[in-house]
Amino acid sequence: INMCSKNLFLSLALILVLVPMIVSFPRHHTLSKRSSFFDIECKGVFNKSIFFRLDRICEDCYSLFREPQLHSLCKKRCFTTDYFKGCLDALQLTDEQEIIKTYVKAINGAEPIL
């Protein structure tokens, strides 16, 4: 009986530790990203890989500066703000600027000013 209660205790402790960790993992569902696509006023064609690439730039920029509003400001108006351009500069992605501009144009539906 003692061994059984030890195993039960260990199992419960493991569950109590693992469940909060699993629940706290970030969720990258297409549906939530697609709704974000419309929330930031994108009027072009939703392309998951392009959207994830541009969103990743904003995530990396946030990770660099840890400024709470930076991620949303970077994505605002479908990646066409000065914050997005500033993130490209800060992340030293200026050599990729032309391809990034075509990505923004595709999902924005208009020529971006970068």
TrEMBL record:
Location in the cell reads: Secreted
Gene Ontology annotations for the cellular component aspect, listed alphabetically: extracellular region
Its signal peptide is 1-24
Q: Which Pfam families match?
A: Crust_neurohorm
The UniProt entry lists the main location of this chain as: secreted
State the disulfide connectivity. 42-78, 58-74, 61-87
SUPFAM superfamilies in UniProt:
Crustacean CHH/MIH/GIH neurohormone
Keyword terms, alphabetized: Cleavage on pair of basic residues, Disulfide bond, Hormone, Secreted, Signal
Fetch the PANTHER family from UniProt.
ION TRANSPORT PEPTIDE, ISOFORM C
Please give the name of this protein. Putative crustacean chh/mih/gih neurohormone family
What is the organism lineage in this UniProt record? Eukaryota, Metazoa, Ecdysozoa, Arthropoda, Hexapoda
